[in-house]
Design a protein that fits this description.
Length: about 375
């Protein structure tokens, strides 16, 4: 590894993926069902700050997946919710999601400058290239003629215009997708908001390397995650930049490993197959393939990210293993019940991940 485990552990950022959509991140009838309310998310954000986590992030979602749980049928809007949470917190970074196909870069520049001021410099922009057609077709805002590469070319231009608006007194631009004439966006942010993106495609990784401060990565296994982390960092270095890498992990904890595994199995037992199939169809999978892949292991499919189960000690060890082996700079955590589970995690796991230096060493 390029750094020692101790150095990396000290620098690792931990955050939460807020349940801005009803049902949170487990698609199941037998799992807790976080409600998409500001009050619920505010409590989760305050707990994250109280227990020493570093950031809070919310997705952008415009249509749910039906099924028995009506998964994500109710959602809040990311930017406005995070502006409220910036007032409710003092230290955690507040990262909101924006779809480039819905917001003109001049509008986005002003919105995030405002969030940066509200938060005292803690704002982050999670840039998403709109990909799920149904979300935008319902608004009449889907350009079905743009390929995946076209959408990234659009987002590349969008981001370049955004960055100019944050730094130049006036922007005139005659591009493929945007035309600006003496466009002004003042005041400029005192410090550019953190730019974040996800995706493993070649064009996505190149976009992240050129523009982003953080990259969210996924993989089927730890070796793949390590390879992805090192890959995007190398790409950024070639651009004369640096980038931090993150992944996601669902935490299912109990007093013992056996009790935690039983909890996971119970949540998996209630997998909402119809919602899962609808989700995969929205990704572009044919219906028959979506149904067959979901039917193979629905109890695992209920979890939308890799998961870790176990006692506090086991969870802490698995988190350290993930971060250190994959050479990540951070993890975004998901909990079945953000209020009770995050409290347990904060009280019993965070002290193991970040032991008090005065306490004489690692837990």
């Amino acid at each position: 590894m390029s750094e020692t485990g101790g150095t990396r552990a000290a620098d690792t950022e931990y955050g939460i993926f807020l349940p801005i959509g009803s049902g949170g991140w487990i698609v199941s009838e037998t799992a807790p069902h976080p409600e998409a309310t500001y009050a619920y998310n505010r409590r989760a954000a305050v707990l994250a700050e109280e227990y020493g986590l570093d950031f809070i992030m919310s997705m952008g979602k415009w249509r749910g997946y039906d099924g028995a749980t009506d998964h994500w049928g109710r959602t809040l809007e990311s930017m406005t919710m995070m502006a409220g949470l910036a007032e409710a917190t003092e230290r955690v970074k507040v990262w909101a999601t924006i779809h480039t196909n819905l917001f003109h870069p001049a509008i986005a520049a002003k919105m995030y400058t405002t969030l940066q001021e509200i938060s005292g410099g803690r704002a982050g922009m999670n840039i998403v290239v709109g990909a799920y057609a149904k979300e935008f077709e319902q608004m009449g805002l889907w350009n079905g003629t743009l390929s995946h590469a076209d959408r990234y070319r659009y987002t590349e231009e969008w981001t370049s215009v955004l960055e100019r608006l944050w730094t130049e007194p006036s922007v005139s631009h005659d591009g493929e997708f945007f035309q600006l004439d003496d466009c002004r966006s003042l005041p400029h942010p005192e410090r550019r908001p953190t730019l974040i993106a996800a995706g493993r495609s070649e064009t996505g990784l190149e976009f992240q390397a050129r523009h982003c401060d953080g990259s969210f990565l996924t993989s089927q296994d730890l070796p793949g995650l390590r390879e992805a982390s090192l890959d995007v960092k190398t790409r950024a270095e070639k651009q004369g930049r640096s980038i931090r890498t993150y992944s996601m992990l669902t935490v299912i904890m109990a007093d013992t490993d056996e009790a935690a595994e039983a909890r996971r199995l119970e949540y998996g037992r209630g997998a909402d197959v119809d919602a899962l199939v609808n989700m995969k169809v929205s990704w572009g999978l044919p219906l028959e393939r979506a149904m067959s892949s979901t039917a193979e292991r629905p109890e695992d499919e209920a979890f939308q990210t890799p998961f870790v189960t176990g006692s506090p000690e086991t969870v802490a060890a698995r988190i350290r293993e993930t971060v250190e082996f994959a050479e990540l700079d951070g993890l975004m955590l998901i909990f079945p019940d953000y209020h009770s589970d995050l409290t347990e995690f904060g009280e019993r796991v965070m002290p193991l991940l970040r032991p008090d230096p005065a306490g004489g060493g690692a837990g």
